[in-house]
Amino acid sequence: MSEAHFEHPLIVVMGDLVASEEAESRQELHRRFNAAVDAINAKYKNQLVSPLTITLGDEFQGLAADFSSAFDIAHDMRLTLLKQDVFCRFVVGQVDLQTPVNPDRAWNMMADGLAEARARLEDKADPNAYRFSFLEDQRCAPLLEAIGASLTNIEEGWTSTQRAYLIPRVLDGESVKDIAARHNVSARTVYNVLVLAGFNLYDRQLEAIRAFLKAEGGSARERQSP
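The structure assignment produced for this chain is given below.
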């Protein structure tokens, strides 16, 4: 294991599975969860400074260098699981790490901001899957979470067919033509499904969050240890 140090606050992605104790098959849930973590780590290996790590049976966390990447990682994790009928919630939060970054596993860390992010995640009464935590100015968090609550509401209203059509469109930019061909339906059918699933509003809200987070903070810069 090598150690890295960063000059700039990092962004933690912390999440857990919703109602995992009610799963019909804990073994199957475990398999899907581990597969999703592996897929996200492979896809975002260049954006993660410490990979998503399952810290407890149904919890995960990782570190990214910037807000925008962290949000994309968390959102991708949510939709990757949602496609398999598994629900998760997450918090994206600033942390000022007091210990070296572990590039192999995101655990055994001490940082300002970790407790605040954890507290935000552990609010089980809040149905919102999208949560945010900042080190100093928290004024923008309620606005971001209000958009996140709308995203949550849209996602949880999707039928299995809407998920199958819309998630590849959102995550991978798959074309309507390709979605139609894969499902052996017409392009018009796909468009109708996307409209009923609220795709246009959903996409606008995603882009609003991304644009804000991109402007909010740049990438952490790695420095060499003496």
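Interim note for the steering committee: The longest strand covers residues 88-97. The longest helix spans residues 26-43.
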